[in-house]
């Protein structure tokens, strides 16, 4: 048995490694077609996760204890279980529980948004608590309602402070989006796997999609830094 395991390695060492990226050139347009699905999935998940995460963060600092207990329990569940398990539950169990046949893209967006909200809520909560308490006290002394105070005074300042963390969460979503390939979404990862299976080569297409992911992440990082600089100049 050990000889059978080591034989392919020994054969590769004897014959030498050969790379031929020209074999995947005809499939490049097909692979690039997955960029749209990947970006769409990331944008929807980030937006919905941000909205729900903001609501959860407000629950966590609310004076009504049931809301805080719910938000804390929600966060512990989604942070304490594997993301792949959550995706499988939403995609495979939803039809059984609800009778609705959810699409792979919908399942991915729902799962990643719910999961991202758990982490984002902690980030936003920390940003809110980091705002000088004098801001809220001054708003209360002026008779500003709680909703207006949070929406116009506290949250804008909190978001400026936590922008780098929110960008990092978006980057994590972009990279983790490759997991949706496990339920059949034709994203970058899935298309790379299809090309690899058709061409009987794996290194070249996987390296190529890795380069695309890297470019997308660097682009998102640049956007985040640019926005952060503009917000600082506006202070």
Question: What does this protein look like?
Answer:
By secondary structure, the chain is an all-alpha fold. The protein has one domain: MetI-like fold (Orthogonal Bundle). The chain contains 10 helices and no strands. The chain has helices at residues 2-15, 28-32, 34-60, 65-80, 83-98, 104-130, 133-141, 146-176, 188-199, 203-233. α7 runs antiparallel to α8 and α8 runs antiparallel to α10. The model is unreliable at 4-15 (pLDDT under 50).
Topology:
Blueprint: H1 2-15, H2 28-32, H3 34-60, H4 65-80, H5 83-98, H6 104-130, H7 133-141, H8 146-176, H9 188-199, H10 203-233
Helix pairs in contact: 3-4, 3-6, 3-8, 3-9, 4-6, 5-6, 6-8, 7-8, 8-10, 9-10
If classified by CATH, what would the architecture be?
Orthogonal Bundle
Total separate domains: 1
In percent terms, what proportion of residues is strand? under 5%
Structural shape: flat
Mean pLDDT: 84
User: How helical, in percent, are the residues?
Assistant: over 70%
Contiguous helical run count: 10
C-alpha end-to-end distance? 68 Å
Keywords:
single chain, 235 residues, mainly alpha, MetI-like fold, 10 helices, 80% helix, 0% strand, flat
